[in-house]
Structures are given as C-alpha cells and as structure tokens.
Amino acid sequence: MSKRLVRLNPEIIFRKLENVTELEINAVLQNGRTYFGKIKSITSDYVVLADTRDHVHRIAIADLYEIVYDMESIKAIALP
User: Fold this and answer.
1) Confidence category of residue 78, pLDDT binned at 50, 70, 90
2) Which residues pair with 29 in a beta bridge?
3) Where are the domains of the chain?
4) Of 64, 56, 63, whose CA–CA distance to 39 is shortest?
5) 69: buried, middle or exposed (CB in 10 Å: 19+, 13-18, 0-12)?
6) pLDDT one-digit tens code per residue, 2-37
7) What is the phi/psi pair of residue 47, to 5°?
8) Which of 54, 6, 60 is nearest to 29 (CA)?
9) Model confidence over 59-71: pLDDT tens digits?
10) What DSSP letter does each residue of the chain carry, written as one string?
C-alpha cells in the first residue's frame, strides 16, 4: 500500500511548490506549532497561507521544519 503524504523539508519547498496555489498543507514549524491552510503564495523566503477561517499567515521558510500535504490534493488542483 503506497503512502499519500508528501513531506518537504525547507531546502526544497520553494523549488517544488513555487507555482502552486490553493494546495492544502500542514506547515510544521521548528517549535512544533502547526498551521493548516491553503497556499496563497510562496517565495524563497516566505510561505503565505490562509487557514480555514481565512486568516492569512506569513511563515518564514527559515522557521519551517517541514510542509506536509496529500499527494492526491495536488493532483486535484490545476498546475501551471
């Protein structure tokens, strides 16, 4: 049985997801705090996501431990 969760460490987040928006992710910080929401934008320095209450969170890539998402979710959104 294959695994559907994809885990990206901070070094490759921008390279893998730079053109992706609206993907639901879990952003796990180095301090253990986790944010869940949809990607609004990604730069080489920040990930911006909107949570389920539409609050926007700007998270520094340097503060991230990893980003986790379901590989089926990325197939469901239109990639450029």
Assistant:
1) low
2) 64
3) 5-74
4) 56
5) buried
6) 689 999 999 999 999 988 999 999 999 999 999 999
7) -115, 130
8) 60
9) 999 999 999 999 8
10) ----EEEE-HHHHHHHHTT--S-EEEEEETTS-EEEEEEEEE-SSEEEEE-TT--EEEEEGGGEEEEEEEHHHHHHSPP-
**Which among 22, 20, 14 has a CA at the least distance from the CA of 60?**
14
Tell me, yes or no, if the pTM score tops 0.85: yes
Tell me which residue has tokens 């992710």: 25
In CATH, what number does 5-74 get?
2.30.30.100
Distance of CA 78 to the CA centre of its chain: 16
From the list 63, 72, 75, the residue with the least C-alpha distance to 31 is 63
